[in-house]
Design brief:
The chain is α+β, with helices and mostly antiparallel strands. The protein contains 11 helices and 12 strands. The chain has a 7-stranded mixed beta sheet with strand order 2-3-4-11-5-6-7, with helices on both faces. It holds the Pfam family Ldh_2.
Length: about 350
């Protein structure tokens, strides 16, 4: 089914308010989720809502919880999310870091113990829109691991995303590189599973360590399978680096089993925000940025149907298309959202109006 972004936004905000979120928080979370769908990242979009409702019901996710400052050491800011909505706490922590950079030139910011941050590229975009550079490392704890180490068969990590963002120029959009350190995000396996699809490549391991392209190994059976890390041994090192940078520097901890697991998606994030004008002029940076992107694009693409795209451009193209055509949700994913709303006391007619 295709749903317009505006109609989807209004309904999802109603679900969140029924779940206990105040209006402003519901708006922040909804805008983040719908933006993820618009930009082609359905894994981090409105399909997460049923999980959030369940986390709130279990008392392991806390609505209406702002970010809390633990330490302010000038260029170093340490926050905790206290299990609040990550879309809110992440935004608030990034706003503080962006403001701090105005006086310090660089800011190391950590955010610990916040529920699902959502699409990490959102925070890179915040920095880029402010004319800043940002680097983000994220780990996941509070739930069982889902990504196997390189050469391993049992999971030992979350998907541990990394994001790097550079500001836009008059001629080029922002560079926003945002990727999970697993071959696919868990949410993408959820979307494929609910749609009854398989992947083109064997991006997962079943519970016996056998490679597979069938997402049901992540969602069916007593023993869950595992996602593969990206880039073989290099990805195996990168996923562990993200685990340590996010889990250790934030104080939120890693996914190792001595730390408590209550079953929510809890993230820690270590972020570096840089004002590039503290080192080079913005005019020179923009000129060099444009020249480098032109140079990259000048390489001949063997397949004309697969042009060279800069990080961030696929999201822009998706957003244009989905604003025009609507956001696609599988019937199964939509049904889970409807069931979550009904469980909160919403009238089924509220969903029928936009389906």
């Amino acid at each position: 089914m295709q749903i317009s972004a505006n109609r989807l936004t209004a309904t999802m905000q109603s679900v969140l308010q029924k779940a206990g979120c105040e209006e402003n928080e519901a708006r922040i979370v909804t805008e983040h989720l719908v933006a993820a769908n618009l930009k082609g990242h359905d894994s981090h979009g409105v399909g997460m809502l049923p999980h959030y409702v369940e986390f709130i019901r279990k008392g392991i996710m806390h609505p209406n919880t702002p970010v809390r400052l633990l330490r302010d050491s000038g260029a170093v800011l340490q926050f905790t999310g206290d299990r609040g909505f990550g879309q809110r706490t992440g935004k608030e922590a990034m706003q503080a870091a962006i403001e701090r950079v105005k006086t310090t030139g660089v800011c190391l910011m950590t955010l610990s113990s916040t529920c699902h941050l959502g699409r990490i590229g959102t925070y890179g975009e915040m920095a880029a829109d402010a004319g800043l550079v940002s680097i983000h490392f994220v780990n996941v704890n509070d739930l069982d691991p889902i990504v196997a180490p390189w050469c391993g068969s049992e999971a030992r990590f979350g998907t541990n995303p990394i994001c790097i963002a550079f500001p836009p120029t008059e001629h080029n959009a922002a560079f926003v590189l945002d990727f999970a350190t697993s071959v696919v995000a868990l949410g993408k396996t959820r979307v494929a599973y609910l749609a009854g699809k398989t992947f083109d490549e064997e991006v997962m391991l079943d519970c016996n360590g056998v490679s597979t392209n069938d997402p049901k190994v992540m969602w069916e059976g007593e023993k869950q399978g595992a996602l593969k890390p990206i880039a073989k041994h290099k990805g195996g090192g990168l996923i562990l680096a993200a685990e340590m940078l996010a889990g250790l520097l934030s104080g939120g901890g890693t996914i190792q089993p001595e730390n408590t697991r209550q079953g929510a998606i809890v993230n820690n994030m270590t972020t570096i925000v840089i004002d590039p004008t503290s080192m080079v002029s913005m005019a020179w940076l923009q000129k060099e940025y444009d020249a480098m992107l032109d140079y990259v694009r000048s390489s001949t693409a063997p397949d004309s149907t697969q042009p060279i795209l800069i990080a961030g451009e696929p999201e822009m193209l998706s957003q244009v298309q989905r604003r025009a055509d609507g956001i696609y949700l599988s019937d199964q994913e939509w049904q889970k959202i409807v069931e979550a709303g009904i469980s909160l006391g919403m009238n089924p007619a509220e969903f029928a109006l936009i389906a």
